[in-house]
């Protein structure tokens, strides 16, 4: 079962060395490849020498395509317009009026999500998750903050959880103005509309893992609602393996009038927020600045959601968020979970955090007429493709390590076997250190150890799980171990 030697100048004729060995009694078939015809010089466009086959995106299956077709543009528009019609949804605004303020918006969202849950056969539940925030930054008086949380319970892996949020609070120019109009159509009725529409179309389907759809409050005042949500999930011992914040996903038009209706940005941090000094020391030694769990989550999104079923390009930004700004994924990063933030390709700041007014003939304010509802619908499909693919695939492998007991020119990887009943096996992926995306894939079977005839000194490795239907997990980036 010969393969090519690694791309670092080795022979191009097939080697007789076996590229993998399986632990215990398990076995796996090696993949035979033909010799490469040219040395890779651009790691992002050319496939390098070495074991495995070129990596390809995961195409949506029939079930996912049907789900994405059900995402309804008119419902999304109606949701954005209804939320904007509450006048203001400022966190400090009226909580008791049935017509205006954050309380009216909260109750409307709860009623809508409860209606979706009623069609779920008991799989989806909805709750008002409240606490009293004592005076703090941008909270001058004790204030009740309430998240509206719909949970679609997984049937085979209920403790493995994926979260999507949008914040339903809004603001005007003055962050403490709790009475002036703050329609918040783009920021962030658009994100709330995404999660509500996904909750509707997923409620009637059976999911393997649990999906949480959360309309959170207090974002504009300091990420209060999402911080509380993340804390509650942490206290409950939930295994959050992915989280997305949809914040400002309502417009495809920039402030200069140019349009980019087929791109959504996805912000994903490199060095983890929770990295310890010991972990930093390891990273400095072996690399991995571009291989955090959040970067692997972002790669997964591109893999499953950049296709004809969504009609979108996912532009991954190697940064935690926009320059010196932040959103509701940050509290999840602080808990050590993979998280990323979706936002529109170019922002128009005349329609964010602005009093509704006209100055020199220019309309200011975050009004529905500046939203692109076709665009929001496509963003919802990107989210839907990512969330559903995550929830139906096996979980990200745990305990992945590169064995460093001995100095060798091959690489031994180990990981823990998952518990999913439909788990079929694993794949090793690898790429040149200068490449942004995984380039080669080696199917290794249902094993927990493999030795690859390729030096860990020259490339980056990862491991992902595969189920019997061909669904693939996000990649686990291995750490040094024994």
UniProtKB/TrEMBL annotation:
GO terms for molecular function: hydrolase activity, acting on glycosyl bonds; metalloexopeptidase activity. GO terms for cellular component: extracellular region. Keywords: Carbohydrate metabolism, Glycosidase, Hydrolase, Metalloprotease, Polysaccharide degradation, Protease, Secreted, Signal. Pfam families: Peptidase_M28. Residues 1-38 form the signal peptide. GO terms for biological process: polysaccharide catabolic process; proteolysis. Residues 393-482 form the Fibronectin type-III domain. It is found in: Secreted. The keyword Protease applies. Transmembrane segments: none annotated. It comes from the Bacteria. Gene3D superfamilies: Immunoglobulins, Zn peptidases. InterPro entries: FN3_dom (IPR003961), FN3_sf (IPR036116), Ig-like_fold (IPR013783), M28_fam (IPR045175), Peptidase_M28 (IPR007484), TAT_signal (IPR006311), TAT_signal_bac_arc (IPR019546). PANTHER family: METALLOPEPTIDASE M28 FAMILY MEMBER, PEPTIDASE M28 DOMAIN-CONTAINING PROTEIN. This is Tat (Twin-arginine translocation) pathway signal sequence.
